[in-house]
Amino acid sequence: MNLLLLKLTLIPSVIAFVTLAIRKWGNKLGGLIGSMPWVAGPILLFFIFEQGKAFGIQAIQGTMTGILALISFCLSYSIFSQKLTWGPTLLLSYVIYTATAVVINYLQLNLLLSYALVMGSVLLALRFFPIPTGQPASSRRLPFDIPIRMVVATLFVLVITGLASVLGPNWSGILTPFPILTSILAIFSHSLQGSNATITTLRGLVLGLLGFTTFLVLQAYLLPSFSIVVSFGVAFVVNTIINLVASRVG
């Protein structure tokens, strides 16, 4: 299949699935589902198809930096959402995301150290996540909200993969977990259901990063020796198992 056609069909389908999952199973489980490698996985796959397997493997280290920045985004958005509307909350969270990414990238950590730092940061962030006060407001839906989400996410993937050769593997990796899907989930839950729904969704997403991060680290070790199908398949199963366990204890 043509890669452009794959991008234009796969990503919108993923966004629609995650949105419908949240509506069916609630914000916490929806956040866990949203943390699966629905967007970052295909982006890594497109890196490999378009730039080569070595490029994709090198990008994983940068992606770890992006995940640390994503954790800071989720925590800060949850905190600010209690007092602010979605506009200033999003802007402040993006600033914190960017600052975190720049600092972590400057440290030039190796993959295993980055992995340990991400896992520790997830647990620490969950410890300090705000506690929802009361129940989420009754759900409202904007007309055409799913198509809007689909278009925004697809444009992001097209831009990141299109600029990969210019950005190089490190910055391409850093931008891979950029909170585009997370922002969509946060904005819609914040504006339509209130801060409590947003906190619950983002907490579920951060909890799911335990599995998502493991998925990426496994790619660094599996891709050099196995096919893409085997590497992604094994890592996806491990990711799912971790998320199932996390949903029980988190």
Topology:
Elements: H1 3-25, H2 27-34, H3 40-51, H4 53-80, H5 86-107, H6 111-128, H7 145-162, H8 164-175, H9 180-193, H10 195-222, H11 228-249
Helix pairs in contact: 1-2, 1-7, 2-10, 3-4, 4-5, 4-6, 4-8, 4-10, 6-10, 7-9, 9-10, 10-11
Could you write a compact summary of the structure shown?
This is DUF3147 family protein. With 250 residues, the chain is mainly α.
**Which class do the helix and strand fractions yield?**
mainly alpha
Cα gyration radius (Å): 17 Å
Form type: globular
Tally of discrete structural domains: 1
Portion of residues in beta strands equals under 5%
**Count of individual beta strands:** 0
Mind describing the biggest β-sheet? none
Individual helix count = 11
The helicity comes to over 70%
What does the average pLDDT come to?
A: 83
Low-confidence stretches: none
Give the terminus-to-terminus CA distance.
40 Å
User: N-to-C SSE series?
Assistant: HHHHHHHHHHH
Describe this entry's structure for a reader.
The mean pLDDT is 83. With 250 residues, the protein is an all-alpha fold. It starts with a helix and ends with a helix. It has helices at 3-25, 27-34, 40-51, 53-80, 86-107, 111-128, 145-162, 164-175, 180-193, 195-222, 228-249. It has one domain. The protein contains eleven helices and no strands. It is globular, with a radius of gyration of 17 Å. The longest helix is centred in the N-terminal third of the chain and has 28 residues, at 53-80. The chain crosses the membrane at residues 6-22, 29-49, 55-77, 89-106, 112-129, 150-168, 174-192, 204-222, 228-246.
